[in-house]
Amino acid sequence: GEEHYNCISALHKSMRGSDENASLYWLGRMLEGGEDPLYVARRLVRFASEDIGLADPLALTQAVAAYQGCHFIGMPECEVILAQCVVYFARAPKSIEVYRAYNNVKECLRMHTGPLPPVPLHLRNAPTKLMKNLGYGKGYKYNPMYKEPVEQDYLPEELKGTDFFKERKT
């Protein structure tokens, strides 16, 4: 019932708050109460990107490994795998930079009126002669061929200058 959602919320918020002790308690409460360990593991995968993100990119690897470990061996043996992951997450630095930026992208797409801007010609793949003749791929600079960073636009003209990492919802 509702306690299922209350406990996962408490676990999530305890890890976010870097409280490893409370995180273990809420994990134990869920597992000892019969919660599906794969449900908890799926939530940890989400937490790895949503709350830790680029502050510790290995967190996602930890979460996926915990999910796979739980899938392979099940309960009760997998409880220590989840406990290790939960403590790792509670101790990890946190960053919601990517989470916010992607939400800004979604907001941009939802707020757009009319047809979405076309992909710029230089970014389009040109597998046929016709496409090449239409200008697909023309002027594209293949970054690995340059020693220095390449100056090149990757967003449609209508979005030039947009920085989803800096824009904030009001």
From TrEMBL:
Keyword Nucleotide-binding attached: yes
Keywords for the protein's UniProt record, in alphabetical order: ATP-binding, Nucleotide-binding
MgsA AAA+ ATPase C-terminal domain ranges (all copies): 17-168
Gene3D superfamilies with a match to the protein in the record: 1.20.272.10, DNA polymerase III clamp loader subunits, C-terminal domain (1.10.3710.10)
Pfam family, one: MgsA_C
GO cellular component assignments: nucleus
GO terms under biological process: DNA synthesis involved in DNA repair; DNA-templated DNA replication
GO molecular function: ATP binding; DNA binding; enzyme activator activity; single-stranded DNA helicase activity
Stated name of the protein: WRIP1 ATPase
Organism (species): Piaya cayana (Common squirrel cuckoo)
